[in-house]
Amino acid sequence: MEEYYSLPQPEEISEREKEDAMGAYLMMFAAVAIGLPLPIINLIASFIYFYINRKKSKFIHFHSLQSLLSQIPTTIINWGLVVWSVTIFFKDDWKLTPEFWGYAIFAGSATLLYFVYGLIAAYKARQGKMYYFLFFGKIAYEAAFKVDTNSQKIVSEVNKPPF
Amino acid sequence: MNFEIKHSEQLSRGELLLRTFFGWLYIGLPHGFLLFFTGLWGAILSFISFWIILFTGRYPQSFFEFQVGLIRWQIRLNTRMYNLEDGYPAFGVSGTDDKVQIEIPYPESISRGTTLLRLFFGWLYVLIPHGFALLFLGLGVLVSLFLGWWIILFTGKLPVSLHNFVVGTLRWSTRVRLYLGNMTDTYPPFSLD
């Protein structure tokens, strides 16, 4: 049976941890911060943030990983839009087809939806609460809170008692 | 804020010449390369902090400590490039230096109103007056560095007055940076001290 570490309650989490967890979701604005309209910037920023903060606490680990993973779909969708736009600009002399508009509206809506969910998650993290995204929430929870029984076994096998 | 760079009684002429001719290569290039990317990260955190301050009234402590570390790193680098101190500056936002002491107290709260004021009118009441003063101080620093270079070459010492002037200008510009970066609500004084 899989074991999990107990979830910390809001009053057990320091202000600093809450702030760090909240900051993870705000990495979605990283591209705006440095003025490069490339969706990959957000993902890189989220990865760096996760890498720096993942060992600070399980609460931060969970939120920063959930933020990182949940940005992958919107990053791919927005990259599709960037590539399509560049192709139209260089090859089709800005002839915008209905298909393009359809995809652009879809990408915009997906990004907006992610922003809304991201901001809700940031708000919850600031309050010291868990907030689970569909699909990614479970993965992040498993990664952050699951007890690694394998590593415990290895440790117990290395140091043995004398009898 | 406590900003001090200790004055060295003796500076190496050899290191002075080495820095002058190869400093760009063995100090400027590696530090500049890393500081460019670290600075980008600092810009992202600063932008995000602005919004966090607007909603919570606090600068996130981890972000604040990162920005302070970044400032320390840049000042450590400037200290060597301006020939205020010998030795190689430590890399990283957590690097330390016996000669360079910068302590910036963490503010428990930052005024939302002042943050918005800075955003819309910071150019008017901070950048123009301080920029004007710092422009002339910067010219003074250039002259001081030139004079200081020759003095160190012949005597092996940098006069205290030149040292204090350069350090004072760095202190001044750092205070302006802190204020414009929403890291303090205290308006930077027009002073080298």
Q: Could you please describe the fold and organization of this structure?
A:
By secondary structure, chain A is mostly helical. Chain A has one domain (10-148). Chain A is built from seven helices and no strands. Chain A has helices at 15-25, 30-34, 39-53, 58-91, 98-126, 136-145, 149-158. The longest helix of chain A has 34 residues, at 58-91. The model of chain A has no long low-confidence stretch (mean pLDDT 91). With 193 residues, chain B is mostly helical. Chain B has one domain (2-180). Chain B is built from four helices and two strands. The longest helix of chain B has 44 residues, at 13-56. Chain B starts with a strand and ends in a 13-residue tail after the last helix. The A-B interface holds A 15-16, 19-20, 22-23, 26-27, 29-30, 32-34, 45, 48, 53, 126 and B 40-41, 43-48, 51-52, 56, 58, 60-63.
- State mean pLDDT of chain A (0 to 100 scale): 91
The number of helical runs of chain B is: 4
Unreliable residue stretches of chain A: none
From the structure provided, what is the oligomeric state, counting identical versus distinct chains?
heterodimer
Query: Would you count the extended β strands of chain B for me?
Result: 2
Sheet with the most strands of chain B?
2 strands, antiparallel
How many structural domains in the coordinates of chain A?
A: 1
Shape of chain A: elongated
- Summing up helix and strand content along with how strands pair, one would put the structural category of chain A as mainly alpha
**Gross morphology of chain B:** globular
Task: Determine the structural class of chain B based on helices, strands and strand pairing.
Answer: mainly alpha
The succession of helices and strands of chain A, N to C, reads HHHHHHH
Rg of chain A, Å, rounded: 20 Å
* Strand runs of chain A, count: 0
Q: Helical element count of chain A? A: 7
**Major beta sheet, strand line-up of chain B:** 1-2
The overall average pLDDT of chain B, rounded, is 96
The major sheet of chain A is characterized as: none
- Could you name the ranges of chain B where pLDDT drops below 50 across 5 or more consecutive residues? none
